[in-house]
Amino acid sequence: MKILFWNVWCLPALFTDGKTSPEDRAKLISPHLAGYDVVLLCEAWTKGAKNVFLKTYPYQYTDNSAGLISFGTGLMVLSKYPIVAPSMELYKMSADFDWFSNKGIFSFQINFPTPTSTRPLIFFLTHMQATYNNSWPIFVYTPASKTAILYQTVQLSNFVNTKLENNKSTDVWLIGDFNMWKRWDPPRHPENTYDDNIMRMGCYNILASQINMKDLQTRDDDVYRFFTRSDANTTITYEDSHGLSDGPYVVLDVTI
Description:
This protein has helices at 22-29, 47-54, 144-163, 194-211, and strands spanning 2-10, 38-44, 59-61, 76-79, 83-90, 104-113, 118-127, 172-177, 214-215, 224-228, 234-239, 249-254. The chain is of the alpha+beta class and 256 residues long.
């Protein structure tokens, strides 16, 4: 199974590099999405970008929570196979610039074909509260963002555990942009305050202890996380996004 995860950075140009509209960015990204079993996107926030991405795969799941002042969740699932029992929960607390989004959690199932039958795979996709700092001069930073990510960590843990109650399957993945990390690396993140990093690390440890999954992520400084119950052999590759987003995109090759 090949999974693509990409934080596609499809916000209005004012909030990205100022060079490309979100729809044009989506058109440039779309050719890179081909050939995967499941594609998981974060920051597909604008309607124009969503419409571009929706044309790339036969099965899709996204949300319609955007309003006059909200960008919605920015989450999108694209799949070769039917998406079974999709559901969404919005985070109840957000802060700072994230107040203009409806970040949340998706859950869904894919029945992956094998030589003899199909195998149900359970996925969770999320994008959590960002903790803004002095490197974001156009935003007003408040301590509320640290409180919000803590509340979201508890809500995410409860959502996952409720969905998986009495389900002993190991074919479970929780993937997303968590805006947290295991350990702080000051040379890589000199702009982050001590309190900010304590909160990011603390939330990571809370989540990891509550959901009973292992983290496949080996880059300790990265906010992307790939939790799973599975013991399947998994190879993680970081691909250059060629300036199309604010970070690499990630490919997970999982032996089913």
